[in-house]
Design a protein that fits this description.
90 residues, rod-shaped, Homeobox protein Nkx-6.1-like, HD, DNA-binding
Length: 90
């Protein structure tokens, strides 16, 4: 069976077009997945309730335990200073 040069050319052209469409679809899917992952990482914190508590003003006379926990969580060196200050004032 003999295939003409023009038929062969059309066959390869169609094959390249099909590959480009498939490759473009795969790239778009990968970009969409990456964008959604980026948005997820930028999104709200897993510890949103803890962050809200941290940002609220605290009354130093009413919630010493909470203040100590927040200091330990966000500034480990400050917790030692707090305990040292408490011991000095006793």
């Amino acid at each position: 069976m003999s295939v003409s040069e023009s038929s062969c050319s059309v066959w390869f052209q169609n094959r390249r077009t099909k590959w480009r469409k498939k490759h473009a679809a795969e790239m778009a899917s990968a970009k969409k997945k990456q964008d959604s992952e980026t948005e997820r990482l930028k999104g709200t914190s897993d510890n949103e309730d803890e962050d809200d508590d941290y940002n609220k003003p605290l009354d130093p006379n009413s919630d010493d335990e909470k203040i100590t926990q927040l200091l330990k969580k966000h500034k480990p060196g400050s917790a030692l200073l707090l305990h040292t200050s408490e011991n000095d004032s006793s």
